[in-house]
Design the sequence.
DNA sequence: GATTTTATGTCAGTCTTGTTGACTTTCCAA
DNA sequence: TTGGAAAGTCAACAAGACTGACATAAAATC
């Protein structure tokens, strides 16, 4: 999946003249778009007294129910102290359940409670709505390119985490 | 899960069948890619004792020399107090020069010094290198789509800021 | 069985960067 | 000329990242 998506073979395709100006526009596009990308969930989170860190935790626990703390750490790329602060509040608030592992009792497996799923739903609905609108505006061709460039921009380890889940559209 | 995004009928272009799963992948792609996007500058900044906020200020002052603090505020989307702390250190360290406005003496016009330009160069070189590599990997078709989706994802006000500068590739 | 490693959690302290509130200087308009 | 608005600064606080040290329990290894 990480091999060049250029695919269609022609060597003429590699004649990509990228001026610094074009690259700068790409950089600013990432900056401005990421703000839009987080704006809707941020508003919802604020009402609950949570931050982006909580969103990320909830998102990835939803994506991979039963994931361990260590797993989550490597996906999120933060320290355990940092994650722990977030998880503690989520557990106290009854959004996340932490179950001792059966095979390995040192591990804690994380699950969203019904309340946790409800918050995840609200957050991801908002984010998906924006993503869907952007996709619709840009069209299917653009969606494919969008994903290809983003994947190529990741660090290899992140790309592994990214590719680790089912997909469906490529 | 929630509503599966099906084409709303109508025009041929809207035959975009977007499952929640596909949208979730797009969301995660943004998350992971943004980390890669900021990783290289972050390493450079750390050596200088700066953070991302400094990078953003330096970037936009470079882009629009002579911009006022207020201008910068609306682009960056933070409070003036927050920006001020960053600007103060940059001015103290001799990377940014603040000149009192001629027409309106309340305004401060911001410029990068030679040292400031040097840091900007180092930061944007690193970021452009990654962007260029991603573009090359993904191909020209993908680059166009990437930009289209990102622009569609921005809030309208950010889109204005984004579109406000010269472009070159579209 | 003893030791080491691993997984997790906690406490304390620092740093960046966001926030609000209060203030000064400057401009402009009634 | 006076009062309000705008631009910018200073101070204090909060979220959330970090490091470092330490505790506990379980698994793995010797």
Sequence:
């Amino acid at each position: 999946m990480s091999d060049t998506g250029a695919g269609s073979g022609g060597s003429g395709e590699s004649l990509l003249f990228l001026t610094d100006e074009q690259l700068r526009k790409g950089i600013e596009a990432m900056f401005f778009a990421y703000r839009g990308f987080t704006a809707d969930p941020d508003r919802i989170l604020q009402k609950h007294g949570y931050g982006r860190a909580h969103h990320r935790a909830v998102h990835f626990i939803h994506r991979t129910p039963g994931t361990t703390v260590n797993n989550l750490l490597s996906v999120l790329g933060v320290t355990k102290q940092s994650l722990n602060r977030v998880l503690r509040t989520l557990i106290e608030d009854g959004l996340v359940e932490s179950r001792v592992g059966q095979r390995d009792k040192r591990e804690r497996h994380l699950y969203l409670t019904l309340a946790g799923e409800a918050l995840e739903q609200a957050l991801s609905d908002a984010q998906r709505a924006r993503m869907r609108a952007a996709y619709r505006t840009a069209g299917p061709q653009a969606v494919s390119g969008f994903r290809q460039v983003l994947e190529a921009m990741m660090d290899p380890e992140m790309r592994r985490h990214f590719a680790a889940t089912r997909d469906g559209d490529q």
Residues 50-54, 78-79, 81-82, 85-86, 104-107 of chain B lie near DNA strand C (CB under 10 Å from a C1').
